Amino acid sequence: MTTEIETTSAPTMTPSLTRTIELAVTTAQIDAAAEKRLQKMAKTVKVDGFRPGKVPMAKVKQMYSNQAGWEALNDQIGEAFATRADADKLRVAGMPNIVPNEKHTVEGELGFSATFEVYPEIAAVDLKDVAIEQAQCAVTEADVTRTVDVLRQQRVTYQATAKKAAKDDQVTIDFDGSIDGVLFAGGSAKDYAFVLGQGRMLPEFETAIEGLSAQESSTFDLPFPADYHGKDVAGKTASFTVTVKEVGVAQLPELNTEFAKALGVVDGDVTKMVADIKVNLEREIAQRTKSITKNNVMDALLTAVSFDVPSSLVNNDIERLQTNAKEDLRARGIPVDDKMTLPTDIFKDRAERRVRLGLLIAELVKANDLRATPEQVQAQVSTIAQAYEDPQGFIRWYMSDANRLAEVEAVAMEDNVVTWALSKAKVTAKEVAFEELMNQNNG
Asked: In the chain, how many domains are there?
């Protein structure tokens, strides 16, 4: 049996981590493996005119010998590569690029060259002279009060009034806009409500409405900015006629039983509501300061030791990030062609950082026995569960899935690395303002 191995262009590899080994498999091994495959196929293959398992072997070979030969060849090469890599104690990263070795001339054998990357050797991490900032923030009563006020603002209602419209009032208006005497698309509306000062309308539009009472009208010119999102009117001046139908004054809900119940406090206890808000704030602030500190630790680790990373692992992560980006676009309602390829450059730095950190964390965990304990996993799940109405039910659900637990184990393991790093470095406390933490995205 003669077989040719398909070759492709060699992938980009990191030179310092690239290795090449020579392999050889005998044609007898390939033929024997192919015969075993054909015997197995014969038991299940379906051919018109024959019952399963009764197809003549000659017919099976005629139909599937090439397929069986290819599969046998790949299996034998794979086994040879694995045996050699194990014997040489090579830590292979990614898939090898295997091509025929034309110089191998031993009769009855096929020779191949396998080029691949290995995992880097990572030196011991020394942090004794490395400074790391540990984020801190205490939740004060003033922070709790401001949060309660925000929750009240989110539930604001508006009471009709005879007063003149001013900032923070809600106005309901009818308006018509025209350019050169012709109404333009999007320039008219009935019973349109918005709050003055929130920036939903152009400043000149809001200024023209301020000072008007219900049933009063105003006609004014409004020049659209040259960079206005509506291209048909951008840079042009429109004439608007606006009639105020209602002016509403903001009415914040009282801090009472009804408000507490609206926030999920069953018995409507306002004191309990405030206490719950404080607990939730402290949990959120703890997570955000922890996230900042973790990022600081990871940055410090990356600067403390230098090593090359396998290009194959970086490329794999780039592909994963590209897939995630497409899924995110689809989730936002943006149509994405499956064949569309996002530029690799925009993901390269992020992918390389992720791979480098992954390799470094794995090395630190191994060298310092920082694996997550069952107790840590349980504690992590319990912490997550506190944000749900039925914490115990959530815990049972979460603990029942191995994949979910693996994610928690990874987080707990990273927490152990952070704790270890802080114990070895020069740590300084960094106070972070409550407002800064709550306004930033640490996701």
From this structure: 3
pLDDT digits (tens, 9 = 90+) for 5-25: 444 456 789 999 999 999 999
Domain boundary among 251, 275, 308: 251
Q: Which two tokens stand for residue 427?
A: 């740590």
Cα–Cα dist 257/271, whole Å: 10
Nearest to 242 by CA among 186, 175, 185: 175
Provide the residue range defining the domain that includes 77. Answer: 15-118
* pLDDT at site 230: 86
List the Cα angle 95/99/104 in 5-degree steps.
Answer: 135
What is the maximum alpha-carbon separation in the chain? 103
* Strand runs labelled E in 180-275: 182-195, 217-223, 237-251
Q: Are 226 and 314 in a shared domain?
A: no
Residue 120 tokens read as 């880097």
| Residue 170 DSSP label | E
pTM to 2 decimal places: 0.76
126: in domain: no
Closest CA to 239 of 183, 194, 201, 173: 183
Which three-class secondary structure state does DSSP give residue 176?
Answer: strand
Residue found under tokens 């029942």: 400
